[in-house]
Amino acid sequence: MNKTTNSYMSHRMGMSGMGMGMSPCFKIVVFEQEHFQGKCQEFTFECCNIKDCGFDNIRSIRVECGAWVGYDHSDFEGQQFVLERGEYPHWDAYCGNLSYHVEWMWSFRPIYCASYQSSRMMIYERENFLGRNVELCDDYPSLQAMGWCRKEVGSMHVLCGAFVCYEYPGYRGQQYIMECERHSGDYQCWRYWGSHCQTPKIQSIRRIQP
């Protein structure tokens, strides 16, 4: 196996109270082939285009520390995939049950603000934080089962931590990563959820594990 290592040091490490000689608080290893085979590379910071590192694609992933989000296009664009600590031996292990077939990942970045125990967000019935609202601080496999009467969410405000929202109940369909550190936690309408988003439909939400 041809292994190369390229670790990036981020100013975020200083913010998290890390000293010299300590292990990085974010580490991901990506592989060009499924089941952790072929060329691999370690990262502790974001990568905006894996092709710049000599990869054609990413087909398996090992997340050793921290939570990450991957994208199926370069420059953090396109379909999003939440990547929590663990092993992803092939593409459908990180894609989950999406509404379309995709077998590539070209960029990824850490989710610095993930805080499972203290995650809180408000969801609103209409855009621009209008209409009925509910505060969420847990995992919800079905918003309708917990009393949300709609299949859509108009806008969201992430007060603390990070969440992954799904198009369908049971954590299925398109994934949208919502973070308190992006857009100041304000997602005024579905167009802010990601470049791949084409609908305000959200039917399950869970907290991201750091």
TrEMBL record:
Gene3D superfamilies cross-referenced by the UniProt entry: Crystallins
Pfam family, one: Crystall
Organism per entry: Coilia grayii (Gray's grenadier anchovy)
Gene Ontology MF term list: structural constituent of eye lens
Residue ranges annotated for the Beta/gamma crystallin 'Greek key' domain, each copy included: 26-65, 66-112, 119-160
Protein's UniProt keywords contain Repeat: yes
PROSITE patterns, per database record: CRYSTALLIN_BETA_GAMMA
Protein name: Beta/gamma crystallin 'Greek key' domain-containing protein
InterPro entries membership: Beta/Gamma-Crystallin (IPR050252), Beta/gamma_crystallin (IPR001064), G_crystallin-like (IPR011024)
UniProt superkingdom: Eukaryota
Function (record text): Crystallins are the dominant structural components of the vertebrate eye lens.
Keywords recorded for this protein, A-Z: Eye lens protein, Repeat
SUPFAM superfamilies documented for this protein: gamma-Crystallin-like
Protein family membership: Belongs to the beta/gamma-crystallin family.
